[in-house]
């Protein structure tokens, strides 16, 4: 498996040793900052580690009551950021699930090269090994409220500390796999925050096939992040929460946004799990596209050969579309 293909195999291994009953049953200087925000105070965040020595990639680690450990964030600045006073649109980019996935995933894959010369700030936060960009129904490992961290804390902190267009037309959200689901979810639940949303091999339907994606979210989160707790509740789901997070049930929330979807169409002969994973992604995205089309909501989509992995060429296409949709730097 190429190092350019982040997967959730690590989570699968972690879950393999658990029965379903066990797994699911247990309960520099910042450019535009004021002094308080530059110190990391405000929005429930406190900086505990930082590195602003790189010309483009700035790193932070925060203490926050929303998460029971200190999550990291990479902020990739555009070329020329330090030499002018322009404001820039922002892309929030979310990693996929797996024990080897975190806020540096896209840096390892080549995000600097993909964005070279592009007038956009890219924010890449931790989202947990299987956090599902959610506040879980239950956790036996302390707070793991990723939705609160990303939306209520990190987003306003970024706008306060960098030269951003702090408005609907100034933000996009995108992600791979679990991160693609997170992007679709946030774009719908927080309509006024993001003008463009992209899902690269991201699930778009939580209830199809007897709720397979919801079951996987519960199982993977129980095994990898929540010590037996779950995102959506077990043995019974929090049905209102599932509906609130389910893209196919929130179709009107994508109206007047740019929507970009990518899914693979053919099995990966090396990795059976990725084959199963992408098969479900493809079916869910087709269902989502069907309801978008029926509602008359424009969207872009790509179905391409291969399984469950990031495709840099399609990310670059997506990035150009994002920049075209958002307010210009």
Shape: globular
Number of domains: 1
The level-1 CATH class: Alpha Beta
Sheet with most strands: strand arrangement: 1-2-3-5-4-6-7-8-9
Percent of residues in helices comes to: 25-40%
Mean pLDDT: 88
CATH topology grouping: Rossmann fold
Question: What portion of residues belong to β-strands?
Answer: 15-25%
How many distinct beta strands?
9
Pfam family, one: Esterase
EC number: 2.3.1.122, 2.3.1.20
Enzyme class: transferase
Family: Belongs to the mycobacterial A85 antigen family.
Explain what this protein looks like in three dimensions.
- The chain is an alpha/beta fold and 329 residues long.
- It has one domain (9-325): Alpha/Beta hydrolase fold, catalytic domain (Rossmann fold), CATH 3.40.50.1820.
- The protein is globular and about 55 Å long.
- It is built from 11 helices and 9 strands.
- A hairpin with a 5-residue loop joins strand 1 (46-51) and strand 2 (57-63).
- Helix 1 crosses helix 8 (208-224).
């Amino acid at each position: 498996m190429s190092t350019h293909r982040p997967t959730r195999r690590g989570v699968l291994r972690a879950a393999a040793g658990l029965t379903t009953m066990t797994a699911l049953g247990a309960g520099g200087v910042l450019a535009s900052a004021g002094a308080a925000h530059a110190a990391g105070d405000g929005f429930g965040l406190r900086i505990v580690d930082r590195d602003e020595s790189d010309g483009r990639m700035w790193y932070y680690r925060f203490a926050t009551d929303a998460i029971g450990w200190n999550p990291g964030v990479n902020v990739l600045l555009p070329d020329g950021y330090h030499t002018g006073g322009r404001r820039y649109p922002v892309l929030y980019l979310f990693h996929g699930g797996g024990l080897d996935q975190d806020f540096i995933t896209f840096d390892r894959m080549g995000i600097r090269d993909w964005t070279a010369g592009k007038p956009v700030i890219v924010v890449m936060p931790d989202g947990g090994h299987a956090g599902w960009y959610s506040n879980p129904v239950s956790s036996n490992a302390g707070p793991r409220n990723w939705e609160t961290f990303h939306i209520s804390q990190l987003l306003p902190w970024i706008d306060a500390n960098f030269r951003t267009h702090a408005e609907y037309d100034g933000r996009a959200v995108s992600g791979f796999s679990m991160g693609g689901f997170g992007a679709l979810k946030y774009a719908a639940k927080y309509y006024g925050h993001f003008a463009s949303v992209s899902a690269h091999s991201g699930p778009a339907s939580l209830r199809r096939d007897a709720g397979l994606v919801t079951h996987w979210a519960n199982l993977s989160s129980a095994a990898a992040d929540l010590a037996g707790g779950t995102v959506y509740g077990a043995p019974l789901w929090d049905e209102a929460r599932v509906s609130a997070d389910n893209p196919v049930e929130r179709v009107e929330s994508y109206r007047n946004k740019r929507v970009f979807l990518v899914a693979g169409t053919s099995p990966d002969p090396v990795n059976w799990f990725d084959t199963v994973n992408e098969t479900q992604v493809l079916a869910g995205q087709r269902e989502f596209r069907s309801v978008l089309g029926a509602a008359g909501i424009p969207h872009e989509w790509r179905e391409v050969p291969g399984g469950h992995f990031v495709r840099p060429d399609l990310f670059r296409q997506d990035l150009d579309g994002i920049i075209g949709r958002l307010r210009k730097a």
